[in-house]
Amino acid sequence: MVETITSSREAILLEDKYGAHNYHPIPVVLNKGEGVFLWDVEGKRYYDFLSAYSAVNQGHCHIRIINALIHQAKELTLTSRAFYNDKLGVAEKYVCETFGYDKALFMNSGAEANETAIKLARKWGYTKKGIPDNEAVIVAVKKNFHGRTTTIISASTDPSARKHFGPFMPGFEIVDYDNVPALEKALANPNVCGLWIEPIQGEAGVYVPAEGYLKSAEQLCKKHHVLLMMDEIQTGIARTGKMLASDHEDVKPDMLILGKALSGGVLPISVVLCNDDIMMVIKPGEHGSTFGGNPMAAAVCMEALQVVKDEKLAENADRLGKVFRQRMQAFMQKTNLVTLVRGKGLLNAIMINDTPESETAWNICMKFAENGLLAKPTHGNIIRLAPPLVITEEQIHECCDIIEKSILSFSK
Ligand code: PLP
């Protein structure tokens, strides 16, 4: 018999006792989601201002995506790639046409998609650029976040991601983010096969680079025959007010890496997109995943993307992001606890006026929860604020009221 949870306390105690302590959650226990709302087991309703780290851009349990899931689940769930299935090719065509690439390689988690991109870049480097075997370098940037595998954390500069997890994978050079001269210098190394960046650093605290940085990165990659590997796992699929954050600067990466909202938060689905000259370097047997590109993922991913287009979520994120930042800018005049608001579309963050080690941002998020809004600090004193993109203008104002009231309760 499966136990049922009747109180938040019971669920928290169970996770605490039987689960690994690899997260430090805000103590709310959720059991229902719809659109921009989540409910806890006691029936309290919250606005979701994290959106599962931007995986539920389309809102919780979007009926069209759930129906696509149910329909496909009743027909066929998994065949492995040992055989063809009737959905994968359709989904590959759909994502290639949506984003403008020749080919797609589906995986599951974001980390796996980044691993895929690394393998593609290295193999392209050896077979197309002529880099001597085992000497390929991928340039990454400080404060990046691309996932948790041992290879990915080898390029991380976050001590908590790395400490005691070595030895690390060689072949990465780390430069300052948002620094064009540093890029110019690093990419001139003839052994560099790829530049691996996020167009906005989400986990680092929604750090938006200076306008022109992404364009310069694209031009420098072209100049030095280096692949631009763009991790849009958090920024993509309408989150920043365009389908891709790269679109803000008209940048077309050589490799586009997507995950999270590709499924609307329904299944782990990720994908790498690139053109034939890159994708075809990988031959049968060299890469794959049992679940990657399964028929359920294929069906869900197409519906999730179609919802984004049909409901014009990029336009909504762009418009309401401006409303949100305007409200927060105005609020900054009324409190000395918020020192900065930054972001694009509905990927925003506020900086709390305290040290990164202080508990202030955490306590503010606890107050948000008490007042019916869920968010979580990222890196100490920065609070990311990223609601589902189906939010309305009226709801944004209501949420700004909650945020302001909560923060003001801390002001002396
Ligand atoms: N890349 C970026 C930019 C991310 O924000 C994340 C997750 O937050 C990942 C990669 C890792 O994705 P996953 O947790 O699905 O492995």
Give a short overview:
The protein has 412 residues and is an alpha/beta fold. The chain is built from 14 helices and 15 strands.
Strands of the largest sheet, in order across it?
4-10-9-8-7-5-6
Q: What is the tally of beta strands? A: 15
How far from one another are the termini?
52 Å
The fraction of residues assigned to DSSP E strands is: 15-25%
Q: Which ranges are low-confidence, i.e. pLDDT below 50, for 5 or more consecutive residues?
A: none
CATH top level assignment of the largest domain: Alpha Beta
- Provide the structure class: alpha/beta
One letter per element, helices H and strands E, the order comes to HEEEHHHEHEHHEHEHEEEHHHEEHEEEH
How many domains in all?
2
Q: C-alpha Rg, in Å?
A: 21 Å
Question: In words, what does this structure look like?
Answer:
Helix 3 packs antiparallel against helix 11, helix 8 packs parallel to helix 9 (213-223) and helix 12 (313-332) runs parallel beside helix 14. The protein is globular and about 60 Å long. A hairpin with a 2-residue loop joins strand 11 (338-344) and strand 12. The chain is built from 14 helices and 15 strands. It has 412 residues and is an alpha/beta fold. The chain has a seven-stranded mixed beta sheet, sandwiched between helices. Strands 1-2-3-13 form a four-stranded mixed beta sheet. A four-stranded antiparallel beta sheet has the order 11-12-15-14, covered by helices on one side. It folds into two domains: 8-58 and 312-408, Alpha-Beta Complex (Aspartate Aminotransferase, domain 1); 63-310, Aspartate Aminotransferase, domain 2, CATH 3.40.640.10. Pyridoxal-5'-phosphate (PLP) binds next to helix 5.
